[in-house]
Amino acid sequence: MNSSKKTGKIYYVLIGLAVVFAIWFAFNLYAHIRRGLDAEETLRQNEIIYGIFNFEEEIVLAARYIMGNDDIVAHLDVFGTSISYAVVQGNDNEFYLDHDLLRRPNSNGSIFLDYLNSVYFTDRSTIIYGHNRSDGTMFYDIQLFLDYEFFWDNDRMTVTTVHDELVYEIFAVFATHINFNYIQVEFADNYEFLSLVYQMKDRAIHLRDITISDEDKILILSTCTGIGPTGRLVLVGRLL
Fold this sequence. Notes:
By secondary structure, this protein is an alpha+beta fold. It has one domain (38-239): Sortase, Chain: A (Beta Barrel). 34% of the residues lie in helices and 24% in strands. It has 4 helices and 9 strands. Strand 8 and strand 9 form a beta hairpin. The protein starts with a helix and ends with a strand.
C-alpha cells in the first residue's frame, strides 16, 4: 500500500471517529439539558404540593384537583429531611419511574406506592419507591440515615391519606440488592411476615430496639444506592 492510500485511510478513520464523538457529545449534552429541565419541573411541582400541604385541609383531594391526577393517593413527609412529596400509585411499578405528577415524561419520576398495596395503607407491609437523584430531590435524603447521629435524632415519618394521618417510627436502615425480596406485600401467615422483619433487622446498618409483632404494620421506603443497577437503600418504620 503506497503512502497516499495510507493517508487516505487514516483520514477516513479520523473522520469516522470525529462523527462518533460528535454524536456522543450531542447525546450527552441533550441528556444533561433534559435532566436539568426535569429537575426544574420536579421542583416546580413540589412547590405546588408544598403549598397544598401547608394551606389546605384536604390535601390529597386538593392535590388531585390541582394537579389533575387521581393517581395521587397520599402525602409523605420524613422528619429532618427534604422528603415531602405527594405519593402516586399506578397500575404497575413502571409508569411512575419516569413520569411526574402531571403524568408527563420526566426522568425524575415520582414518589410512588407499590401497585399491589392498599391506598389506605392497611397492608402489613407498604412500600413506597423513589429515585435517588444527585440534585438532592426525590429519595436522595434517605442516605442521611446512614449517619449514626442523624438516624438517632430523626425517628418519624408521616403519611397523610384521604382519611388519616399515619405516623411511623423509623427502626432500621439497610443496604441490599434486589435478590432480597424486601418488597413483599402479601404473606401466607404471621411467620412469613415476621421472618421478613427479622431479615431486615439482620441487615440493618442502624437499628432501634423495637419489637415488631404480627399485628404491626410497617412502611418501607426504597431507593437506589447509586452503586450498580441492583443496589438498594431502604428505610423502614413501624406504624404507631
